[in-house]
C-alpha cells in the first residue's frame, strides 16, 4: 500500500487525530516479554536427562503446561521404554490424576486411549492401575473429562477378562443407566453395554444385560433412546438369530413408532444393520413389510423430517434386503426411490413469484437435502436393478438429478458417477449422456465431483464400447466437446488442483479417442497449457498427459510434429 498517498498529512483522517494520538503512532513501542527470566528458569529442563527422567521430573515439579506435555508423551514412552515407563511413569500419573486439573485429566485420558489402541499397556496392569482411576474419572462432573475417560474404557473393554467386566464394568454400566442419573450418564451406560456385549454368551446377555437395555430403549429422553438404538445391532450380532428375533426386533419395531423423528430414523438405520443377523424368513415376513410401511408413511406428510431419514437410508436398506425381496417388491422400491428423488413442493408448483418465508425456506432446504441423499444412494439402486434395468427404470431419474437446480445435488451425482459406470459394466455407455451434461454444467462444484475419478470413468466407457488403443475404432467423439468445456472452466477458476486433475484425466482419452481425434483436439489443449501462464503443477500434469497421448499416436508425422513443437 502507498502510505504517502493513502494517508497523507493533508488528508481529513490525519487532521482529525490529536497530538497525543500522532505521537503514539510515531513512537515505536517495545513488546513486553511474555515470560520473566525467573519464569523461564523454572520452565527450563536439563537437556541431558533421558525422556523417562524428564517426564518424571515434569510430573513431580513442573507447571501445569509441563505436566500436560509429560502426560501426552505416555504412548511414545511406552513404545520406546515400556518397562521403565510402567514402573516409574505410570504410578506417578495414577497418583497425581485424582487431584489434577481438568486439562491434565483430559490429556491423560486421551493418551491412555491411544496407548490402549496400540496395545502398549498389558491387561493386568490396566486392570490394577488404571481401571479404578477410569471408573472414578468417568463419574467426573466435568463433561469433557468424563467423555475422554469413557472413550478410553470403551477401547479397553475388548481386552479385559470376563471376570473383570462382570465385577467392575457391568456394575458401572448399570449404575450410570439409572433414571436418576443425568442424560449424558445414561447415554454412556448405553455405550458401555454395547461394548461388553461382545464378550459374553447369548443367553447370559439375555438374562443379565438385555432387561437393562430394554429399559434404556424406553427411556424418557430421546437422546438416550437414540444412543441405545445405535447399539442394538451389536446385541443382534452377539446373539443367535432366534434370540435376536425375540429380543432385538420387538424393541426396534417399537422404536420405529417413536414420537421423535430422530429416534425413528435411528431405528430405521438399526434395522439396516440388524437384518443380516436375523433368520431369513423373519427378514422376509417381518423386516421387509416393516420397512415398506415406514416408507409409505413417510410420503403421507411431505413436510415430515422422516423423509430425509428415509432418503439417507434407502440405499443401505435396499442393499441389505434385495436378496430376500421378490421382483415385484424390488420394482416397488425402485419406483419409491424415483418418486422420492423428484420430491418437490406441489403447493408452489406454477408459482414462480411466491414469497419466501422462513417456513418455506426450511421446507425447500429439506426437499433439496432429500434429493441430494437420493443422488448419494443412486449407485445402490443401480446395483439393485442391474445394468439391464438401468435404461428402463433409472436413466430418466439419473438425468433429472444430473440437471437438478441445486449445485449440491449435481455435485453428489458427479461424485458417485464413477460407481455407476463400474456397476453398469458393459452397459455404461448408456449413461454417457449424463456424463456430458455434468461436464457441460460449467459448475466448479460439479467438476470437483467428476475430476477425481475421471480416469476410471473414461476407462469404463472404453471397456463398454470395446475400444482399445491397440485396435482401430471410431472412438467416442461426443466426449470431446464436454471435456474441452470442463477444462476451460477449470482453467479459468482459481482452483488449480481441479485443473490439474482434469488435465491428468486427459491421458485416459487414449482409450476413448482415435489418433486423429487426439491429435486435432486434445494435443492443442495440452500444448496451450504447457506454453501458457499456468501454475507449475498444472503444466507438469499437461506434460505427463501429452507424453502418454504422443506415445499412442499411430501416425509418425503426428508424433514428429508434437516433438518439433516441444523442441522450439
Automatic annotation (TrEMBL):
GO terms for cellular component: cytosol; protein serine/threonine phosphatase complex. InterPro entries: ARM-like (IPR011989), ARM-type_fold (IPR016024), HEAT (IPR000357), HEAT_type_2 (IPR021133), PPP4R4 (IPR039918). One of its GO terms (molecular function) is protein phosphatase regulator activity. Signal peptide: none annotated. HEAT repeats lie at residues 209-246, 248-285. Keywords: Repeat. It holds the Pfam family HEAT. This is Serine/threonine-protein phosphatase 4 regulatory subunit 4. The lineage of its organism: Eukaryota, Metazoa, Porifera, Demospongiae, Heteroscleromorpha.
Amino acid at each position: 500500500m502507498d502510505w504517502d498517498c493513502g494517508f497523507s498529512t493533508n488528508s481529513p483522517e490525519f487532521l482529525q487525530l490529536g497530538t497525543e494520538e500522532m505521537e503514539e503512532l510515531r513512537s515505536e513501542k517495545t513488546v513486553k516479554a511474555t515470560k520473566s527470566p525467573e519464569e523461564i528458569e523454572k520452565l527450563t529442563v536439563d537437556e541431558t536427562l533421558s525422556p523417562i527422567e524428564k517426564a518424571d521430573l515434569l510430573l513431580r515439579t513442573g507447571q501445569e503446561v509441563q505436566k500436560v506435555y509429560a502426560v501426552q508423551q505416555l504412548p511414545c514412552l511406552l513404545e520406546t521404554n515400556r518397562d521403565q515407563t510402567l514402573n516409574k511413569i505410570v504410578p506417578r500419573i495414577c497418583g497425581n490424576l485424582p487431584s489434577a486439573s481438568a486439562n491434565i485429566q483430559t490429556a491423560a485420558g486421551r493418551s491412555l486411549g491411544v496407548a490402549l489402541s496400540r496395545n502398549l499397556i498389558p491387561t493386568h496392569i490396566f486392570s490394577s492401575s488404571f481401571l479404578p482411576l477410569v471408573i472414578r474419572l468417568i463419574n467426573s462432573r466435568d463433561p469433557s473429562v468424563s467423555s475422554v475417560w469413557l472413550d478410553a474404557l470403551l477401547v479397553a473393554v475388548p481386552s479385559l477378562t470376563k471376570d473383570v467386566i462382570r465385577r467392575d464394568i457391568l456394575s458401572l454400566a448399570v449404575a450410570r443407566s439409572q433414571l436418576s442419573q443425568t442424560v449424558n450418564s445414561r447415554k454412556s451406560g448405553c455405550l458401555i453395554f454395547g461394548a461388553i456385549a461382545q464378550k459374553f454368551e447369548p443367553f447370559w446377555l439375555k438374562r443379565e444385560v438385555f432387561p437393562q437395555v430394554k429399559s434404556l430403549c424406553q427411556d424418557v429422553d430421546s437422546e438416550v433412546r437414540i444412543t441405545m438404538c445405535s447399539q442394538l445391532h451389536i446385541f443382534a450380532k452377539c446373539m443367535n438369530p432366534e434370540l435376536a428375533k425375540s429380543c432385538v426386533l420387538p424393541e426396534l419395531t417399537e422404536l420405529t413408532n417413536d414420537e421423535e423423528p430422530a429416534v425413528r430414523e435411528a431405528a430405521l438405520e438399526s434395522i439396516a444393520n440388524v437384518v443380516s443377523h436375523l433368520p431369513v424368513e423373519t427378514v422376509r415376513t417381518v423386516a421387509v413389510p416393516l420397512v415398506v410401511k415406514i416408507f409409505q408413511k413417510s410420503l403421507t406428510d411431505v413436510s415430515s423430517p422422516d423423509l430425509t431419514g428415509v432418503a439417507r437410508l434407502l440405499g443401505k436398506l435396499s442393499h441389505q434386503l434385495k436378496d430376500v425381496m421378490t421382483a415385484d417388491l424390488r420394482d416397488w422400491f425402485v419406483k419409491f426411490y424415483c418418486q422420492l428423488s423428484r420430491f418437490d413442493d406441489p403447493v408452489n408448483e406454477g408459482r414462480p413469484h411466491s414469497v419466501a418465508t422462513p417456513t418455506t425456506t426450511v421446507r425447500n432446504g429439506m426437499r433439496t437435502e432429500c434429493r441430494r441423499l437420493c443422488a448419494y444412494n443412486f449407485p445402490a439402486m443401480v446395483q439393485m436393478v442391474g445394468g439391464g434395468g438401468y435404461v428402463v427404470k433409472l436413466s430418466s431419474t439419473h438425468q433429472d438429478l444430473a440437471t437438478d437446480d441445486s449445485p449440491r445435488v449435481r455435485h453428489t451425482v458427479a461424485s458417485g458417477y464413477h460407481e455407476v459406470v463400474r456397476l453398469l459394466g458393459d452397459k455404461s455407455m448408456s449413461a454417457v449422456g449424463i456424463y456430458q451434461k455434468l461436464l457441460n454444467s460449467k459448475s466448479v462444484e460439479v467438476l470437483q465431483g467428476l475430476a477425481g475419478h475421471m480416469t476410471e470413468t473414461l476407462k469404463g466407457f472404453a471397456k463398454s464400447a470395446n475400444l482399445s488403443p491397440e485396435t482401430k475404432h471410431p472412438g467416442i467423439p461426443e466426449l470431446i466437446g464436454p471435456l474441452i468445456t470442463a477444462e476451460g472452466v477449470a482453467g479459468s477458476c482459481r482452483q488449480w488442483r481441479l485443473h490439474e486433475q482434469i488435465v491428468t484425466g486427459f491421458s485416459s482419452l487414449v482409450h476413448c479417442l482415435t489418433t486423429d481425434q487426439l491429435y486435432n483436439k486434445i494435443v492443442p489443449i495440452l500444448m496451450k497449457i504447457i506454453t501458457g501462464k499456468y501454475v507449475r503443477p498444472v503444466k507438469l500434469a499437461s506434460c505427463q498427459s501429452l507424453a502418454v497421448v504422443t506415445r499412442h499416436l499411430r501416425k509418425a508425422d503426428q508424433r514428429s510434429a508434437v516433438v518439433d513443437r516441444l523442441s522450439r
